[in-house]
Amino acid sequence: xxxxxxxxxxxxxxxxxxxxxxxxxxxxxxxxxxxxxxxxxxxxxxxxxxxxxxxxxxxxxxxxxxxxxxxxxxxxxxxxxxxxxxxxxxxxxxxxxxxxxxxxxxxxxxxxxxxxxxxxxxxxxxxxxxxxxxxxxxxxxxxxxxxxxxxxxxxxxxxxxxxxxxxxxxxxxxxxxxxxxxxxxxxxxxxxxxxxxxxxxxxxxxxxxxxxxxxxxxxxxxxxxxxxxxxxxxxxxxxxxxxxxxxxxxxxxxxxxxxxxxxxxxxxxxxxxxxxxxxxxxxxxxxxxxxxxxxxxxxxxxxxxxxxxxxxxxxxxxxxxxxxxxxxxxxxxxxxxxxxxxxxxxxxxxxxxx
Length: 354
What we know:
5-stranded mixed sheet; 10 helices; globular
């Protein structure tokens, strides 16, 4: 199997390089660009890592401190009825973990350096190899779905002493998520609304934004106080039509960018990286061709990728239909009484579509 040329220096690119090394690729066969420091607004982004992704990353890196999600609380803002999914019910140590982008990037970069991964010396005799695009640009080939939403991102100090609960609240203009952070009484906010509304909120001072958030979210976490800067992040769903072209393959945000509802974008990208490394490693061991390996990768990713994109699109759209809001609330309440269905949905979010 020829060398691996990785394009990108984010979590998915680093994870792929580490997974490939674990599959038996020598460090001289993996060309990985040097990591960098992300812009502040990117580094502070809050990431929800599913249990499945956490288990994959734990094989190749010493992961930073993170907040374990013990419960996910789902509701429709302003309407009765809610459902709760718990790690205890799923017989799991956690449903997932929450940490900041910069902390995950630093941990993966440190693991890559410890493994000796970096710029590999070109071998003029060896074949050119496969180029793995993980740079976060889906390109002009992507199918685009506009949600007419932007996400307001901020950190929030809460007065409630309990931790470990992630909240997903569906509102008329988009979902509002509150994700527990590693520090006590600190949460990450992802609040979706129209781009104009999100920009307006981002321009408010902290007391005014805190008051609006308190009125929308309620008192489940006690008093809410926005701390630090808030900023609006534009959103659209972009999915490449072509994932493999000759000796090139696109994974992670270079393959698809999802709406943040459910926190599935990075998790889907990490599963891309793991399976691609696994398939290439198997092909290397069996001396199979690169063409056959990439064809196998496409077949094995089709169900998870298509299913996760469809699920995320549906959640982003369906809960914005105002006339259906009472039915949505009733459906969520009914889900709370349907343990097998609730467990099936939880497994899909934890491990992907299988």
